[in-house]
Automatic annotation (TrEMBL):
<dbReference type="GO" id="GO:0006302">
    <property type="term" value="P:double-strand break repair"/>
</dbReference>
<dbReference type="GO" id="GO:0004527">
    <property type="term" value="F:exonuclease activity"/>
</dbReference>
<dbReference type="InterPro" id="IPR038729">
    <property type="entry name" value="Rad50/SbcC_AAA"/>
</dbReference>
<feature type="coiled-coil region">
    <location>
        <begin position="988"/>
        <end position="1087"/>
    </location>
</feature>
<feature type="coiled-coil region">
    <location>
        <begin position="554"/>
        <end position="581"/>
    </location>
</feature>
<dbReference type="GO" id="GO:0016887">
    <property type="term" value="F:ATP hydrolysis activity"/>
</dbReference>
<feature type="coiled-coil region">
    <location>
        <begin position="480"/>
        <end position="514"/>
    </location>
</feature>
<protein>
    <submittedName>
        <fullName>SbcC exonuclease</fullName>
    </submittedName>
</protein>
<feature type="domain" description="Rad50/SbcC-type AAA">
    <location>
        <begin position="10"/>
        <end position="230"/>
    </location>
</feature>
<keyword id="KW-0378">Hydrolase</keyword>
<keyword id="KW-0269">Exonuclease</keyword>
<feature type="coiled-coil region">
    <location>
        <begin position="743"/>
        <end position="805"/>
    </location>
</feature>
<feature type="coiled-coil region">
    <location>
        <begin position="247"/>
        <end position="301"/>
    </location>
</feature>
<keyword id="KW-0540">Nuclease</keyword>
<dbReference type="Pfam" id="PF13476">
    <property type="entry name" value="AAA_23"/>
</dbReference>
<dbReference type="InterPro" id="IPR027417">
    <property type="entry name" value="P-loop_NTPase"/>
</dbReference>
<keyword id="KW-0175">Coiled coil</keyword>
Amino acid sequence: MRILAIRGANLASLADEFEIDLRAEPLASAGLFAITGDTGAGKSTILDALCLALYGQFPRVAIDKLESVRDPSGRDITAKDARAILRRGAAQGYAEVDFLGQDGKQYRARWEVRRARGKADGNLQNAERRLDSLEDGSSIATGQKDVSQAVEACTELTFAQFRRTVLLAQGEFDAFLLAAENERAELLEKITGTEIYGRISEQVNSGTKERANETKALEQRRADIGLMEEDVRTKLESELAERSALSESQSVQLKDLTERLKHAERLKDARAQAYNAETGLAAAKQRLDEARDDIARLERLDAAEPLRAKAEAERLSERKLAEARRHAELCEVAVRQSEQNAASAARTLKEASEASTKADADVEKFTPLWREAEQADSQIANAASELEAAQAAVAQAQRQADACASDHEKIEVQRSGLNEQLAQTLNELETRSTHALLADRLEDITSRIDDRAELRRREAVAKKELFSATEEDARLQPLIAAAEEEVAAYASRRSQISAQLNELREALSQIDETSLSEHDARLRDGLELLRQAREIARQHSDAAATVSEADVLRLAQEKALAEASDMIRQAQAQHADWLARRSEVSGLFELAEKTQSQHAVALRSALITGQPCPVCGGLDHPYSELGHPEGEMVAQMRARRAELDQAIAATAKDITTWQGAEERARAQCEVAARRGEDATARCLDAQNKFEALAPQLSQFCVAENLPLPIGPGIDAKAASALDGLKADAEAIQRGLREPLAQAVSLRGEADALQKTLDEISEDSERVAAQIQKDRDAKASVRAKCGQLETQLASLAEQLASIARELTPYLSTAGLALDDLDRDSLAAQQHVADLATSYAKLRDARASLDAEQQKLEMSQREIHLGWEKAKASLGSSLLAQSQREQRLQEAKTARASMLGGEATDTHRARFTQAAKEAQVALSAAQAAHSEADKKLELSKALLDGALRAIDASVQDFATAQEVFANAISVAAMNRDEIYALLAIPQEERELLRSQINALQTKLTEATIALTHRRQEVERLQGEREEETDLVALTEAVTTLNAEIEDIRNRVAAIQAELKQDNQARASAADIGRQLEAAREELEIWRRVDDAIGSADGNKFRRFAQGVTLDQLVQLANVQISELNPRYQLARATTSDLALHVIDRDMGDEVRSLRSLSGGERFLVSLGLALALSGLEGRQSFVDTLFIDEGFGALDAETLDMAIDALETLQGHGRKVGVITHVAAMVDRIAVQIRVEKRGGGRGVVRVVDAGFNDASAFAVFAEA
């Protein structure tokens, strides 16, 4: 990194703008230059500007103290605020640095600060920073944070590293050489920035303690977990397997019983449904019998329905006749009216023709007169237009003259009022002259009042927070004490519960639970064998009963099968006989029907449309209205054939029914045979199973001293014998239940105590954690109290300062500080009102002065305008008189034409009359033509109406005759037919649907009864034996209860095993955590042994020693180049002690305090350069600034120091020395001089003592 140029303005003493360009001569060629000047001139400010531009801060304010200083704006800022460098009285300032980055590119960093509104006493604004590339002018970064990060990336140096690399403060190393060991450790830590190692040492020590506590807590948690004994767990697992198997076998038995119970319930439901079907069939028959009257009524309606068309035809022809007669009457009236209208239209046409002829003659007569009148009207209009223009000019001139006079009067009034206002304003300004100060400084006063209000608010908040923090501190103390007592109580209770748990486990060990459990398991196995034997005996008994039932069913179905076969043969013979008879009748029926059809065709061919039928006389010509001999014969044959068809269908149905019965009987025979075979096989299977089970039963009876009441085979007494044996075994088992229950109870109590112990441990840990949390909170609260007290003191001082500033302004406004405390806003508003009022008065005076000048100018302009208006008015009056005379002459000439009437009016009146006469003539012609047409049409309509009457009379007579013939054939009178036909079609169809529904329900009830009976027969066929529903239900209930007991015991065992599994998993998890915690603790202990300590000294001293070794090594390299006589070495008696080896004295080891001033300067300079190399070893810096006073050195030592600095040129470095020592200034030719110019101002100049004209390198600029 290389510094290329430094610029700035308005920074502390440097008020003028300055630029130090290290690329320009003489600095470009100088390896060593001095920054000189009197004390306070601003030498160090140049280095401050360098740091500000790059990092936004500088060493003199890089402190941790929270001191406050007063800014010219009246606000307090912290002492570490970099903006404090802005010069007093300046509104803005900046610092700028050009540098060469580690990437070889040139950059420009800039820091700038401004005050509000560009005023010297305005509030400080946020500092602005930016970093630009000088290569292409692009912006790299803006803003505080972004620029700092970008600068660090370009330079590869933080601010602390930059201070130790570029700005070398030798005073620190001189103090370092002469300090005691502890002080030297602090200085070394400050110089090298190795304080992080102390914090690491402390964190390692605290981290080791935390992990030791965590490991101890895990060990306690694992010890508190109680696990089940292995033998107890084995017995529970065995019992679980046995009871699970027993539950499965009983579930199978329960399934069989449930199926039997369901079958019995289905059979019962089927019988009930069959009974309901029989009841439904009887009800359907009764409802159909009750509907006899409705059936007869429907038959009468159906008989009357064919006559509806003839009745409607009669009514329609009658209505048509009446309508034809009414239409003829209307036509006669229309003919008479049309004749009258035609005569009236002829008269109107004649009158309209005469009027049109007269109107056309009048228009032709007046046409020449209208042209003459139009010419006269045009002359009058021109004269009137000219007169209007002249009158307008006169009016305009008069208005202008009047306006000028009025404006003149108004301005006089305004001037008078304005003078009064101006005098009043001046008087009030003089009276309130003391408020001028408020008006001029209103913004500052308001700002300070706001600052005071904010400070008072912050003071109130701080007091409130201090009060709250004090209360919180008082609240936490009893909480911590109570929590500590709670932890002690938990420990006592844990001891008590542990003792109780040990007693329970001792009592549990006194019970021989293992032997009892084994005996109970054997009894359960034996009872399971007895249950299986009892089930096998039941299955054998059921199978034997099924064999008997199957034989009975098979014999019955074989008998039914033979009966069905006989009935099928009889029905088939009868069916063949009926078919032969129908074949004979069918031939005769077809011949008779053919003969009848030929005769009917002959009759229909003789019918003529519109003529009466020769048979019935009707005009509708239906196919057949009267009987005939051939028809009667055909009807008899048709009835006989229908009877034969019904007989054939009935025999076919019987055949189908008996065939179905035959198939069912055959199927039932097969079912019975299969059931017999299956039942026989089940008997043999049950016998084999019982024989296989007999040895185990014998072994169980011998083991339990029970009798052997049965042999290896199954007989009728086997079931009762097995039931007695089961009762004896259950009695033995009940004797074991009490001790086993006691053991289970003890184990449950032990588990509950263990759970309580675990909960107490968790609660104790939780309370202990809360204690630590409360202690931390208490320490934080006390620290906060200290901070708040400091803050309150600072706020009080700031409030006193603002009070001193505000008191003069408040006195001017008639207020005091108490008024601000009572109502700050009202007081502030009062000051603002006074200041605003005074400012308005000043503005009003200026406005009145300007208005007065404006009125004077307006008055002069108005006078000129009035003179011009009077001249224009005279000329306009003369022109108006001349145009009035011409207009009167033209009107006199026009009055003799058309009787004085307007031409357009006169012409429009006659022209309109001609048009109206022509329109009336056209209308009359059209009306006359229309009347003639209507007369002809009315006559034609009358002729048609008369013909329609004749036709309607004939149609009505024909319809009456046809309907009368139909009534006689139907054997019903006219009124009855009309009454039946009047019933709506919907009502008839509703009656028909109701009757059909009754018939359908009868059919459905018949079918349902058949199906229900078949279902009963089917269910009875599935199980021949009758089942006792009550006994079967009780058996199912008992078996369900036994299964439920077994399942409850299984669930209890599973819960115990699950709890033990969870405890084992928890113990295993804690074990893994404990193992990992121990491994981690071992690592932390090793690290703690190496570098850990409560105060952080162990690792800090070690790091300081390593850093000191590196620093000494690098310093010796620098010292050997400056003066090879001396070398630094670490002492063996102490960690941080140093000695100097004097090579000229035979490598004598000398104390640092034995060195002279010049020798100590060389050593401290070597250390400073070494630190620069240590911090910048990754990034070479070729520009160094050494800020060190050389006034304490004698001439010889000073020469030695200068020679040492000049040797740094050979290493490619440019060194700037800040000094005010005259001897040193004389030795260094190239200098940056900071010269005082009075008023605390300094000017920067670059000079070269080797040139006669030093001003050639002077640099002046404004900041």
